[in-house]
Design brief:
The protein has about 190 residues and is an all-alpha fold. Helix 3 packs antiparallel against helix 4. It starts with 5 loop residues before the first helix and ends with a helix.
């Protein structure tokens, strides 16, 4: 394996880690889930750092990294809802935002033959939202272990819902602009 593939391999490891994370969560083994989730977070930080530090960024990596994040977070959120820790309304807000992002990306990239050098770059608000969603999973796991933190739960839900809504609106604007640019080039 070429070293340039290391960031992509770390993204694949994060996807694979989703399975034991969800299993541990469904078995209500919160400390194990937290440790596995933190390990997945380390792979996320490492793949981004290695890609940038050694100029191993690639189009595949620009797709694989956020896909790994989405798989990990979506499966974690569904499992958190399933065990009764996360409310359905928040799961739906996150799900609708993700559908908007995927539909917009598919529409854009199917409608335009992009150069191989085109990298998918998440917006600043999207990066912030991803950090908040990761923090939400960690927080929800921590309050299962340290119940005194439970008083902050509703506030955390509102902050994540707001960030998710703003990020979704940002993507809608981005896809509309890209669509208009595509159409003006025709």
């Amino acid at each position: 394996m070429s070293y340039s593939m290391l960031p992509n391999a770390l993204s694949i490891i994060r996807i694979i880690l989703t399975v034991p994370i969800v299993i541990a969560l469904l078995k209500e083994q919160y400390l194990l889930t937290l440790l596995l989730f933190l390990l997945a977070g380390i792979t996320d930080a490492l793949d981004g750092w290695i890609a940038k530090q050694f100029s191993f960024q690639s189009r595949l990596g620009s797709i694989l990294d956020p896909m790994a994040d989405k798989i990990l977070l979506t499966c974690s959120f569904i499992a958190l809802y399933w065990v009764g820790i996360m409310p359905l309304w928040l799961l739906m807000i996150i799900f609708v935002r993700d559908v908007i992002i995927v539909a917009g990306a598919l529409g854009y990239f199917l409608g335009e033959i992009s150069r191989d050098s085109d990298l998918l770059e998440p917006s600043l608000i999207s990066k912030f939202n991803t950090v908040l969603q990761i923090a939400l999973v960690i927080f929800l796991l921590l309050i299962q272990i340290y119940t005194e933190l439970n008083g902050l739960r509703d506030m955390v839900f509102i902050v994540v819902a707001t960030s998710t809504g703003l990020s979704g609106a940002d993507y809608v604007l981005l896809w509309v602009k890209k669509f208009i640019l595509q159409e003006s080039k025709k």
